[in-house]
Specification:
This is DIS3-like exonuclease 1. It catalyses: Exonucleolytic cleavage in the 3'- to 5'-direction to yield nucleoside 5'-phosphates. The protein contains 28 helices and 39 strands. It has five domains: 168 residues, Rossmann fold, CATH 3.40.50.1010; 174 residues, Beta Barrel (OB fold (Dihydrolipoamide Acetyltransferase, E2P)), CATH 2.40.50; 207 residues, no CATH class; 187 residues, no CATH class; 107 residues, Nucleic acid-binding proteins (OB fold (Dihydrolipoamide Acetyltransferase, E2P)). It is globular and about 90 Å long. By secondary structure, it is of the alpha+beta class. The strands form twelve sheets. It has a five-stranded antiparallel sheet with strand order 10-9-8-11-12. A five-stranded mixed β-barrel has the order 13-14-15-17-16. It has a five-stranded mixed sheet with strand order 18-25-24-21-20.
Length: 1051
């Protein structure tokens, strides 16, 4: 080891130049990361393969500017130098540096890090007077030469750079070490990777055509980081995440942070940032620092409904009470992501150079500003959706600069719109790779999968001793959970068992399949497809607890007092089960109801006596299970468990697995029975892992909601004569139970939806981060809770299974070399899973909105009776009302005053038209006055609305609701509306799309094949976009708003 010195010239917090001398140690042996190593380097972790034609060493400029190209998996054998990585950290910030670190950690990418500045023979001290860029280039070239010599010339080394002087200087110095440009590298070595060539062209144009300095600045400069940090500590500045309003993106944004406080100002409502100038180039999601404006300049949030998507021109009468208002003075962290934009038609105003044209592309997300893109394909990309990334936003520019990444397709096409939804929510789900599928066990007719004798010796065998059965939606193939219940000898004790698929037996921690499942974190459900977290051989076969086959399970079994259900003993462990019956909900309920026509498929071939005996045994088990679940639910109800409004819709499939209808799940007692058993298992597993690992267990908490969020619920209920007590979950549950209107059951349903909207999000967390009083689950009224029962579709459950395995048999886990994640690692994983879950919910909601628009887009709202429906008013605004349409599960605004100043006037028969007049808002109603008289719209009134589609070429289509009559709609039979309307909607969308698919097939020969990028997001193996994979459990076409998905949100 050699000691040397490294001299750094830094700036102090006061701006003074400081010369820092640091000790720098050089070593002869530094890991090279290649399997061709002849020097026995200590290469732990990833190593580069030896069967490549070359290794590639990118210089600093390439890593800083072209990292996206190096992320292509096709580019193998990439050696990142320490010099380049440090340059990324210093010039691009923490976010880009973490992106590079994750790339180096990812085993799916053939790339390694070489610590060239600690290697004795590759280290290059900086010469006096040498500029930093030339020194960095010299360091990278020296590392490339060392690599070639270290591997004894067995592998050619290609250094890629955009520095023409470096190519001329180093290009012919050493045989076996080639120095070429990125463009030449891609052309000579990877001509088939078209995406990389297009991305290179896009990034190069963006770098070459950065906007020149304008004579005047459009925005003020951001303050230095040290000034921002000092201001935050002193309380002068406020740190938070910028949240731009979806309804008023041009003008309204806010800063909201948990525990936001200021010495002299109440900031519990957050800080308003009014207008684009005050945002100072901050983009939605950026972590910013704001300075409060004088109180005389404070504004309130606009409370009026936004008509259209133009700039809001609300006056003070349309604003809430003034709130703290500020301006952005600095940005601590840019949270830029991939954005989908639409290239507008050319209008002659776009700037143009010899080789490219600068286009102001319009983002799909209205909260994102227009992005200036330089491209040579401006004409070809008109009206196309394109994925872009922002590169910079200078103070002299009104808009950020960016570059295109890939083209999705023409705007408006179904596949383009679905891909847009996925990308906008950060969901990337390529088909499972061959390497991942090679890790899967084989189960085929020629080589059927069987129980491993070694596993049989270790596990408790329940195949002969227990009656195990599953209850799931009809047609379900990914069966996560099964149940068992029996009376123990003596009759004083019951044994209840919950048996969950043992996914962790097949998914080894750290394997490629495990890494992919962790990356996805959940199964993504869209309206016409789903993207599984695990390969089908597991999710639909070996991990699915199907009837009549042997399967591995993780079981929780309780000995309960038969009368009080007091827990006598709990057993956790690995088991082998064979499910005797695979029931669906309707069949299980029919058996409980004693319906004679109920047929159990597994008993169809038995003789009468044996059939009756087994049927009686099964029915008895179901009745016992129902009895147990009732008491368990009663226990939680006494603790304050909430029963809020949620809608779950399941898809009916034909033999070709196409959707034939979408039917809302009818409320059956057996639903609650199964759910209660799963909640009970999750609660007891949470207790076990938390008690065993108090500082590193993955639990799920649901914080109590903030009281001010209940204001709409309390005020709306008061207008109907109900009092809602929100002080505790028990008080809220009781008051909601009492808020019943015998004339209109929708009133209670809407109140529960409002209560759900006020709830905070349930989150995964590591127990080492929170005190135990923060573990509480508000919605379920449980002191500890986790997710254990769905490991096929939730990665959190896989983590919990591993924790439970370590808790019940620590010696076995230690013997297998498995170590638990630290508190910090577990918290990072929990945050990742939380983010992916929220992305899945947003994508599902957007997918549902897309299909609702598809249904109505082909219909004439003026003549088609299906476009007219009954709606219920649930909120009053300054210029309109918010309504819920039960028939289609649609929520949206209905205006009673338009931009021209006209108001809705109702005639004697209730029919409405626009006339000149005025509007007056009250707490529980809104009135319009015109020449026809006064028309009043009250909370919970039923009105008739017309549904049409508002087409937005740059954004997603949206539904437009217009009042037709202030009386309830009488066009359809009330009893048939809820289910038949939804079924009709989906069937019609499917029919139209199948016709389009058929037409597309007829033109297939004349059309080019799908590009790799277009295929990347399609996992359906048939051209029919409406072919589902196994089962859509969480598809909700009715009301996917957060207010109507309480079960998914709080459980």
């Amino acid at each position: 080891m050699i000691k040397t010195e490294k001299i750094l010239h830094l700036k102090s917090s006061r701006g003074r130049k400081v010369r820092v001398v640091r000790e720098h140690y050089l070593r002869e042996r530094v890991p090279c990361g290649s399997c061709l190593c002849q020097a026995a380097c200590d290469n732990d972790g990833k190593v580069l393969p030896g069967d490549l034609t070359h290794y590639v060493v990118p210089d600093v400029g390439v890593v800083v500017d072209y990292l996206e190209i190096l992320e292509f998996r096709e580019l193998q054998g990439v050696v990142f130098t320490q010099t380049a990585c440090q340059a990324v950290q210093h010039s691009k910030g923490r976010r880009q540096y973490n992106r590079l670190r994750n790339l180096l950690k990812d085993p799916r990418h053939d790339c390694v890090l070489f610590a060239n500045e600690f290697q004795e023979y590759s280290y290059c001290p900086r010469e006096k007077g040498e500029c930093q860029e030339r020194w960095q280039t010299r360091c990278v070239y020296s590392a490339a030469v060392w690599y070639h010599d270290h591997l004894a010339g067995m592998m050619d080394i290609v250094m890629i750079t955009e520095d023409r002087d470096a190519i001329a200087q180093y290009g012919s110095l050493n045989s076996g070490v080639y120095v070429i440009s990125v463009q030449d590298f891609l052309r000579d070595f990877w001509p088939q990777v078209q995406g990389a060539h297009e991305l290179y062209s896009s990034i190069s144009q963006a770098l070459q055509e950065k906007e020149s300095e304008a004579p005047q600045k459009e925005y003020s400069e951001h303050l230095p980081a040290e000034v921002l940090e000092a201001g935050i500590k002193s309380g002068r500045y406020i740190k938070g995440t910028l949240n731009i309003s979806k309804h008023r993106p041009q003008n309204e944004a806010s800063i909201m942070t948990d525990g936001l406080s200021n010495k002299s100002t109440d900031l519990s409502r957050g800080v308003l940032v009014d207008g684009g100038k005050n945002r100072n180039r901050a983009v939605h999601g950026d972590v910013v620092v704001v300075e409060l404006l004088p109180k005389s300049e404070w504004r309130g949030k606009v409370t009026a409904l936004t008509e259209g998507q133009g700039e809001e021109k609300g006056g003070e009468e349309n604003e809430s009470q003034p709130m703290p208002t500020g301006r952005v003075v600095g940005i601590l962290q840019r949270n830029w992501r991939d954005y989908v934009v639409t290239f507008p038609p050319r209008d002659g105003t776009q700037s143009q150079s010899r080789n490219s044209q600068r286009i102001l592309a319009v983002p799909w997300d209205r909260r994102i500003p227009k992005i200036r893109i330089s491209t040579q394909q401006a004409d070809a990309l008109q009206d196309h959706r394109v994925v872009v990334r922002i590169d910079s936003w200078e103070s002299t520019s009104l808009y950020p600069n960016g570059h295109s990444v890939r083209v999705l397709g023409p705007a408006g096409e179904l596949e383009t719109e679905v891909q847009t939804i996925l990308i906008e929510n950060g969901i990337h789900v390529a088909p499972f790779s061959d390497a991942q599928l090679r890790e899967m066990p084989v189960n085929s007719p020629e080589k059927p999968w069987t129980i491993d004798p070694a596993q049989a010796a270790e596990r408790r065998d329940l195949r002969e001793s227990h009656l195990v059965f599953s209850i799931d939606p009809r047609g379900c193939e990914d069966v996560d959970d099964t149940l068992s219940v029996r009376s123990l000898p003596g009759g004083k004790l019951l044994e209840l068992g919950v048996h969950i698929a043992d996914v962790t037996h097949f998914v080894t921690e750290g394997s490629l399949t495990d890494l992919e499942a962790r990356l996805r974190a959940t199964t993504y459900y869209l309206a016409d497809r789903r993207y599984d977290m695990l390969p089908a051989v597991l999710s639909a076969d070996l991990c699915s607890l199907l009837g009549g086959v042997d399967r591995y399970a993780m079981s929780v079994m309780w000995e309960l007092d038969a009368h009080t259900l007091a827990v006598n003993k709990v057993w956790y462990g690995r088991t082998i089960i064979r499910s005797s019956y695979q029931l669906h909900y309707e069949l299980a309920q029919a058996l409980l109801n004693g319906e004679e026509e109920a047929e159990v498929p597994e008993l169809s071939e038995l003789g009468p006596e044996e059939k009756d005996a087994k049927l009686a045994e099964l029915t008895q088990a179901l009745e016992t299970l129902t009895h147990v679940a009732r008491q368990l639910r009663a226990q939680r109800d006494r603790g304050g468990a909430l029963e809020l409004e949620g809608v779950e819709v399941r898809a009916q499939l034909d033999e070709q697995r196409n959707i034939t209808a979408l039917v809302p799940r009818q409320p059956l007692e057996v639903h609650e029975t199964v759910a209660e058993c799963m909640i009970y298992a999750n609660h007891w597993v949470a207790r076990k892992i938390q008690e065993t690992f108090p500082h590193q267990a993955l639990l799920r908490r649901h914080p109590p909601p903030r009281q001010e969020f209940f204001s709409q619920l309390v005020d709306s209920a008061k207008a109907r004569g109900f009092a809602i007590d929100t002080r505790t979950n028990k008080a809220l549950a009781d008051s909601l139970d009492q808020a019943l209107d015998p004339q209109d059951p929708l009133v209670n349903r809407l109140l529960r939806m409002m209560a759900t909207a006020a709830m905070s999000q349930a989150l995964y967390f590591s127990t080492g981060l929170e005190s135990q009083d923060q573990f509480y689950h508000y919605g379920l009224a449980l002191d500890r809770y986790t997710h254990f029962t769905s490991p096929i579709r939730r990665y959190a459950d896989i983590v919990v299974h591993r924790l439970l395995a370590a808790a019940i048999d620590p010696e076995r886990e230690a013997g297998l070399g498995r170590t638990l994640a630290s508190n910090k690692e577990l918290e990072e994983m929990a945050q990742h899973i939380n983010n992916k879950n929220m992305a899945a919910q947003r994508a599902q909601k957007s997918s549902t909105a897309l299909f609702q628009c598809l249904y109505f887009k082909e219909r004439d709202p003026q003549t088609d009776p299906s476009c007219v429906a009954d709606a219920v008013i649930y909120s009053i605004r300054n210029n309109g009302i918010l309504v819920f349409v039960p028939e289609y599960g649609v929520k949206g605004p209905v205006y009673v005053k338009n931009r021209d100043g006209q108001v809705v006037a109702a005639g004697p028969d209730g029919s409405c038209e626009w006339q000149s007049g005025s509007v007056r808002q009250h707490s529980d109603h809104i009135s319009t006055t015109s020449s026809c008289g006064t028309s009043t719209f009250r909370l919970f009134d039923h009105i008739t609305v017309r549904i049409s589609v508002h087409s937005a070429p740059f954004h997603g289509d949206s539904l437009n609701l217009e009042v037709v009559s202030n009386k309830p709609h009488r066009g359809a039979e009330p009893q048939q509306t809820p289910s038949q309307g939804r079924s009709q909607l989906v069937q019609e969308v499917v029919r139209l799309a199948e016709e389009a698919s058929q037409q597309a097939q007829e033109k297939k020969a004349a059309q080019p094949k799908l590009s790799k990028e277009e295929r990347e997001f399609r996992q359906s193996k048939t051209p029919n976009l409406y072919s589902l994979l196994e089962e859509v459990r969480e598809l909700a076409l009715m009301d996917l708003d957060r207010a109507a998905r309480v079960c998914a949100t709080t459980a």
